[in-house]
Amino acid sequence: MNLSPPVGICPDMCPERERRERELQGRLNRYETLNAERTSRGRRGRGHPLADPAKTVKEYSRPAAGKELCSPKDLRPPAVLLNTIRYLLMALWGHTNDMGLAEVYSFTFDRLRAVRQDLTVQRARDQSGARVLEGSLGFLLCAPYMARELPAGSYDEVLHATQVRESFAELMECYKLGGRHPREAEFQALLLLYDLGNLDAMRRTLLLPCRVGDSPQVRLALAVSRAHLEGNWVRLFRLLRRLDCLQACAFYRHLSASRDWALRTLTHAYSNKHCRFPLGLLARLVAADDPGRVAEMCRTRGLALAPGEHKTVVFLRASFKDMGPERPGREVLLVEEKRGGRTWAEVMMGEEEEVVG
């Protein structure tokens, strides 16, 4: 029995067999068509748009009994997979202003699942495999911030988080096998920020080689994790200001809970009807974009705002309402300003934007 994994030989982003099949069945996404003219004939004789070989990307297919997923002609090698990611992010995702965000997110997410599927089938865990996973994770970490206002039907938070965790797990396996991985320190830090407070993740980080563990990215991520575990929310938000854009996106899902935790702590520490806490200072401490947003957070929790030239908060445990974290919103200070002049696609690809597959 041959137990060696198959080696992909497909030179295109989508195998020719699948491209022709989806063209005939009218299952092409509008981003994959050559033009709007209906020229091909389907099974019922109706015309369908032609596929553009330069734009058609292999779609994700669930493994099923009798379904062939291991044919070398249908598998893309790591170099093609990396070029596919570059196309999805740099050529497609970079034009979200001209397209519907929900549609382009759904398309990109599905095609990246197919990318990881091809990689997994081939068991590609060398440097080339790591680069593919790093590029994919760039999208998976940034997309939740951009998709924050999409309806539940357009963005499945649980499924997205599952893909993030599985991609990180496979990437860590690539790193364990050794070799040269220029972005290892960056992604070890991103994993810590995404899995905030995970003791196993912190323990693994402390056992990393010095060249990785002593890097500025990992040391900063460890400091953020320690501040969280120690309950030092003032230091936590001070450290968050030092994160770059991709790191801030990795932490983003914890931001609302961290602010809720800060308000709870202050309510217990300053619970006194005669005590006044400056609203502007509170906004700076929790790294909020403006005091008005923090004022609304206080009101929804039953905390009064004292009138005056400079608004202040009255923390009282008796009036505090347990509302839980708010739905994540736009973050200019902690996320968007850190993009600088880069596009979201460039943030997602990071150093990979200069790689030619």
Structural commentary:
With 357 residues, this protein is mainly alpha-helical. The chain has a domain of 50 residues. It is built from 15 helices and five strands. It has a three-stranded antiparallel sheet. Strands 1-2 form a two-stranded antiparallel ribbon. A hairpin with a 5-residue loop joins strand 1 and strand 2. Helix 3 runs antiparallel to helix 4. It is globular and about 75 Å long. The two termini are 33 Å apart.
What's a concise summary of this model?
The protein has 357 residues and is mainly alpha-helical.
Give structural attributes.
single chain, 357 residues, mainly alpha, two-stranded antiparallel sheet, 15 helices, disordered C terminus
Beginning-to-end CA distance, first to last residue: 33 Å
Strand order of the largest sheet: 3-5-4
What is the general shape? Answer: globular
Main sheet: strands, sense, barrel = 3 strands, antiparallel
Beta fraction: 5-15%
Q: Evaluate the radius of gyration.
A: 24 Å
> What are the low-pLDDT stretches, counting only 5+ consecutive residues below 50?
352-357
| N-to-C order of helices and strands | HEEHHHHHHHHHHHEHHEEH
Q: What structural class should be given to the helix and strand makeup? A: mainly alpha
Helical fraction equals 40-55%
* Number of H/I helices: 15
Q: Please provide the count of β strands.
A: 5
Mean pLDDT: 89
List the helices and strands and how they pair.
Blueprint: H1 16-25, E1 33-41, E2 47-51, H2 78-92, H3 101-122, H4 127-146, H5 157-176, H6 184-194, H7 199-206, H8 210-213, H9 216-230, H10 233-240, H11 245-251, H12 255-269, E3 277-278, H13 279-285, H14 291-300, E4 304-306, E5 312-314, H15 344-349
Antiparallel strand pairs: 1-2, 3-5, 4-5
